[in-house]
Amino acid sequence: MTLPLDGLPGLDPAWSRTVTVEGNTWHVLDNQVVDPVGTVLCVHGNPTWSYIWRRVLAEAPPGWRVVAPDQLGMGWSERTAGPRTLAQRIRDLSALTEALAITGPVVTLAHDWGGAVSLGWAVAHRDQLQGVVLSNTAIALPPGTAGPAVIRLTNNAALRTLACVTTPAFLKATVALSRKTPADVRKALLAPYGTASRRRAIGEFVADIPFVPGHPTRPTVEAIAGQLSTLDVPALLLWGPRDPVFGEAYLDDLRRRLPRADVHRYAAASHLVMEDAPDYASTVWRWVTRPSPVPVRALAEQPQLWAALEDRAQDHEPAIVEVGGRTVSWRVFNRRVAEVAAGLVAQGVGRGDRVALLVPPSADLALAVYAVWRAGAVIVVADKGLGVRGMGRALRSARVDHLVGTAEGLAAAKAMRLRPTGLRISAGPPYKLLGASVSLADLARAGRDHLDRLPEPSGDDECAVVFTSGATGPAKGVVYRHRQLRAQVALIKAAYELTDGDRIVAAFAPFALYGPALGIGSAVPDMDVTSPGTLSAAKLAEAVAAIDATVVFASPAALRNVLATAGALTGEHRKALGRVRLLMSAGAPVPSALLHQLADVMPAAHAHTPYGMTEVLPVTDISLAQIDDGEGVCVGRPLPGVAVQVSPLSSLGVADGELTGSPGVLGELAVRAAHVKDHYDALWAVEQASSRDAGWHRTGDVGHLDDEGRLWVEGRLVHVIATAAGVVTPVGVEQRVESVAGVEQAAAVGVGPVGTAQVVVVVVAPGERESLASLALTDAVRAACAVPIAAVLVRGSLPVDIRHQSKIDRQALSLWAADVLAGARP
User: Fold this and answer.
1) pTM of the model
2) DSSP annotation of 198
3) Residues contacting 457, CB < 8 A, separation 6+
4) What ranges in 228-376 are assigned the alpha helix state H?
5) Percent over 90 (pLDDT), the chain
6) Fewer CB atoms near the end CB (10 Å): N or C, the chain?
7) CB of 366 within 8 A of CB of 379?
């Protein structure tokens, strides 16, 4: 290899240069911008080299300089006479930046053991420092850890020499951690270290890691770690959580030391996060060049989430009824919430601590939720519909401090390798074999003497982390503050004219816990709320009768099963259901035919379908009488205080247009309201994309507004089909196909490259054989559609999301359709 470097994928030879400083020759990648607006100083770790920053250089915005040196002894820099300690490497880097006339503002960007070097430079150059970006690194051993096992194995000098120097084992193992890296990139990462003499510094770098007390580098590391909290600059942590070297414990440690840091976890990334997540560089630049935050407009404070409990503190009427189980009065529920909250505080649960709730909908779950809020802590909820792996991934990403669970929940926590550092609380007996040391009942007894210690959370305090359904990707944590949930409760109560005389049966997970905050009694039906199809008509009627409910909230999938089992209703069942005044359904598009048919089951109920999502609910509302036929699903007008606009789509289906409220414009829907989520948890890049327009949440849904200000939803942005003739949204096509005789369900998907994709319709049609539809059915489907259809395929069922069992997984169907059309067996 000769310098400047040439022939390496993604690396411009013009960036490659050498610089001699204090008698040592460095190799540096430098875009050499003159009079830059700022400089990003990139510091690699061991055993990589500056090549890992090639995308950061390639995507540098105009005016920004990027300097990425190979540390001495590493990459293509000079092999020095002896080993270099951390303190020496910090001095080396300082001498280099002075020689390169880097004066600031500077953002440091570092990975692996380069993190300590960059932070050492940062604390010594505060006058130049503008920000800090770190990836999969450490500045100290997290409590209870002994250091990465793969590194500790090389503590033995002979083994270290063998693995790091004599052979390329350590080097190749590091590169292999990135499974998606192409062969030519792997070759480039290995290129500077072809011989034992060129790998000597790899072993020396490992030897300098201060795992044990008395190590000569230990004081340097401790000094830097001690100064982190005094770095008054923004920080960004970009992390690959699948890293066997620097796992979640190291991320948590840095978050404690840099509590205001922005965080983005690339769920599928490992140690070499910049290789596993190619959009890493664009995220860095989006953060570096981000505009100043827009001040949040002060809103009138709504009452605390438990205010309705205190208002009804002397009321003996039922607050919560478990069908076939307990009935808890408002008086008892209010007292028990305060006692458990005080017990949590007395046991050390602090303001802002995160508490995972692994308890099914029940009186115990409601008690845990309101007690955690009353104690000033944050509930973390991921429903079991995500599966053990999905729940574990979600809850680990949320950095849970404490845990409340039933026996099943505590066992699941073990299976998910959930290791909260604080309390493990049982919702039943203590279950000490499952790790619980205290129960909710124990906390209530302990809290009776500490009721005066309860905090008063402010509107700006976080109160909940809830997870999306994962229907279009990994479930995302959505963070709410008290002011946002208070605004949501106030809006729901006003929009549906709920009073103390109402009572609700909520067979829909997000609403199962709203009764106490709304000040209305609630019943928990005998069903698995995370499996909507388990709600039968009889079970719904029994829940309605148990609390004399006036309101029912259920997902479309649950209501379909209610309709399917309505034949088993008795006279008493029908009498109870006849008293329901309001039926609400959400979670997926609700067919008007379904609501019309339900009129036979709940004849006095006015049917409403609020539209919203985990990030903001409700957005709009429409009654059955207002539903019209049209292109997509009409979800009504925005509720009071809610604004909706669209970002127009390009010909390739990209929502890159300026927000507009003009009627008839197809685009991604954006919402602004007081009850919109605060941010995505540890997903800074996703948050920035969803809030590209300050104050607005981009929903990922597509649709349009009509001349009357009503909103029509036409599908998800990721499901838009970009054909040669223009974009096609799926819902309108599916509605027309489902009007064809013999078709029970339909999904429209794209097959082929973006911009020239073909529309393929997949149907469920009893009597048709799986694979290509018959000629007669194909002709009927084509005749019903207003767009060209390349093929019509038949399946026994359509894949749907786990939570609502209503949202069609069109991405999975697209892959299936492509395989079938390519000749694979269906």
Assistant:
1) 0.91
2) G
3) 304, 351, 373, 376, 463, 482
4) 248-257, 273-276, 280-288, 307-311, 330-346, 363-374
5) 81
6) N
7) no
Contact 308, 516 (CB under 8 A): yes
pLDDT of residue 3: 73
Is 404 in contact with 345 (CB distance < 8 Å)?
A: no
> So what's the pLDDT on residue 532?
79
Query: Token match 């200000």: residue?
Result: 709
Task: Give 595's strand partners.
Answer: none
pLDDT tens-place string over residues 746-801: 999 999 999 999 999 999 999 898 889 999 999 999 999 989 999 999 999 998 86
8 A C-beta contact, residue 794 and residue 770: yes
Tokens of 564: 């399917």
**The token pair that represents 759 in the structure block:** 């529309």
Is there a contact between 38 and 130 (Cβ–Cβ < 8 Å)? yes
Q: CB atoms < 10 A from the CB of 361, how many? A: 22
The count of other CB atoms within 10 Å of the CB of residue 454 is 16
Nearest Cα neighbor of 505 from 595, 429, 583, 391 is 583
Which of 603, 628, 558 shows the shortest CA–CA distance to 803? 558
- What backbone phi and psi angles, to 5 degrees, belong to 27? -100, 135
Burial 659-690 (b: 16+ CB within 10 A, else e): beeeeebbbbbbbbbbbbbbbbbbbbbbbbeb
Length of the chain, please? Answer: 826
User: CA-CA distance, 668 to 653, in Å (whole number)?
Assistant: 10
State the 10-residue block means of pLDDT for the chain, 826 residues long. 81 96 97 96 97 98 98 97 96 98 96 97 97 95 74 80 95 91 95 96 94 89 94 96 91 93 95 95 97 63 94 96 93 98 97 96 95 98 83 92 95 91 91 88 96 94 91 85 96 95 86 89 86 90 96 91 95 97 86 88 95 94 83 89 97 96 97 97 96 94 96 95 96 93 95 97 93 95 94 93 72 94 82
Q: Calculate the alpha carbon distances from 486 to 106, 523, 671 in Å.
A: 41, 22, 18
Q: At what angle do helices 363-374 and 440-447 cross, to 10 degrees?
A: 40
Q: Report the distance separating Cα 207 and Cα 291, nearest Å.
A: 42
